[in-house]
Amino acid sequence: MRKLVLVFVLCFSSIVFSQKKDKVLVTINGEKTMISDFKRVYEKNLDAIDSEEAKDVEKNLELYINYKLKVKEAYDIKLDTLASYVKEMDGYKNQLSAPYMQDTTFINKLVEDAYYRTKYEVKAKHILVRTPKIPTSKDTLLAYQKIMKIRDRIVAGEDFEKVAEETSEDDSARDDAKSGRKANKGNLGYFSAFKMVYPFEDAAYTTKVGEVSMPFKTRFGYHILQVDSTRISKGELEVAHILLNDKSAKGEELINSIYDKLENDEQFRALARKYSDDTGSKSKGGKLRKFGTGMMVKSFEDAAFSLQKEGEYSKPFKTRFGWQIVELIKKYPVESFEKMKGDLKKKVKSSSRAALSEKAVIDKLKKKYTISEDKKAKEIFDYKNVRTIAKDSLQAILLTINGKEIKQELFIDYIQNRKNMPVFQLFEDFKDKEILAFYKENLEKTEPEFAYILKEYKDGLLLFELMQQKIWNKSSKDTLGLKNYYTTNSSKYDKEYDKIKGEVMNDYQTYLEKNWISDLRNKNAIEVNKKQLKKLINSYNKK
Fold first, then answer.
1. Would you say residue 19 has pLDDT above 70?
2. CATH, range 236-332
3. Domain boundaries, the chain
4. Cβ-based burial of 322 (10 A; exposed 0-12, middle 13-18, buried ≥19)
């Protein structure tokens, strides 16, 4: 019974489409329902109705009026103030508003970019000038000026790798005598989408081959990069390997003997379980997780991607981890956009680039809203211990968004546990948050579709609670009333009460609801515009 009521709620929730010649169809206690309102509800479900009787316009209008009366009753007895209802609505409102916090067009563009950057790999080298974890505006300026001077040297003709080895604050650019690591001179090899932090990826894919980018910022500091080449992605591989940590001649001798065993048709998996020093993979016969370019050391990657056929294995080779042999299990080439679109969208939405979509929404709102900042109120930013200022001294208006005034106190609350950024930058984040919050608070006024769907859910939730109180709980707890109903209507039942209690309860619920509806109709003023109803019926008969 409850399920049927919820279905009915969904069927008779409305989305009003204004029409130039719209007329009033029903008036309940002075509240008007337009023809377009009812038509939208009625037509929404015609395809799901399988009988002419169920399509009857007058009968559907009566059901719709009943629904409106029940919802009105729920509001009259203030069910919308119940704590459980308020909590449920807050959760649903957050869920419903989430898509409005994202720019769909922008998200789609990010997904298309991600596919291109999955299909094509880019090879680049970079130079990094670090900034402190909590940079001041001076720190940021100095780092920018430093990286610009470095860029000027390269643009003037100096070799990028030489300058990288000399100036980059990425330690991998120089030799490390302690670990024996050789300098990469800024070279990062080939990479594709989601392999680097987004600003780095974006700079690499938007810089032409051979050119040096302008400085760009990541959480590490300022970078410049030079793109060496692009190529079609090699996709991903699934491989198994055998690793011997012993890099000496003895290790080489053993890896060669293992290779000879493979040549004599011994199973790769069995040999991996027996000999491999990789504790994470040996129990699985040396099997590793699927990977693409840029995820393994270069010598391992080169050996793996050189294999062409499933089951083919490499000759022994040496990496910084030791002696290895790798076997190809399966190749995973890049699939079509249509096949990858769903997964890419999930990746985009769960990655840092999703914030760019939210930022796109905020940027649009900034152009639309009237936003002002009070310079005098912002002077607190200069206080060394700004977070310790007494609240009674923080009552000045700091920010105004379309007339909504936001005091200094709210900003100080915001930054209390955010100490990883300078105050001036935190203010920009705070302002963006408040702009988005204002938009969210006013969605019902600015987004009709949101308002209608939210109203639909509100009314449905209220009706569920009302039906529970008026019908379902009463029919299950009123044992005497249920038995009296059975006794009064015993002529239509051919079995004892205990054997058909469920059937009797359903009938009793119908009986209670019928009487309740009758009471509601008696205490409310309902007026149906007969002329417009007749026109409406005729319009459907012609179809």
1. no
2. 3.10.50.40
3. 2-76+447-542, 112-232, 236-332, 369-433
4. middle
Using alpha carbons, select from 234, 131, 128, 199 the residue that is nearest to residue 351.
199
Mean of per-residue pLDDT scores for the chain: 90
For residue 505, count CB atoms less than 10 angstroms from its CB and return exposed for 0-12, middle for 13-18, buried for 19 or more. middle
Prediction pTM value: 0.61
pLDDT surpasses 90 at 111:
yes
The pLDDT assigned to 177 comes to 60
HSE at residue 397, side-chain half, CA atoms within 13 A, is 10
Domain 112-232 identical in fold to domain 236-332:
yes
Write the DSSP string, 105-119.
Answer: HHHHHHHHHHHHHHH
Mean pLDDT of 280-309: 94
Instruction: State yes or no: pLDDT of 1 exceeds 80.
Output: no
For tokens 């190749």, the residue is 331
C-alpha–C-alpha distance, residues 212 and 220, integer Å:
19
Domain 2-76+447-542 indexed as CATH 3.30.70: no
pLDDT of residue 240: 97
E-state strands within 267-315? 291-292
Compute the distance between CA of residue 367 and CA of residue 365 in angstroms, rounded to an integer: 5
Q: 112-232 has which fold? A: Chitinase A; domain 3 (3.10.50)
Structure tokens at 86: 């308020």
Residues 60 and 46: their CA atoms lie apart, in Å, by 11
> Hey, what amino acid is at 486?
Y
Q: Which pLDDT tens digit goes with each residue over 305-333?
A: 999 999 999 999 999 999 999 999 999 99
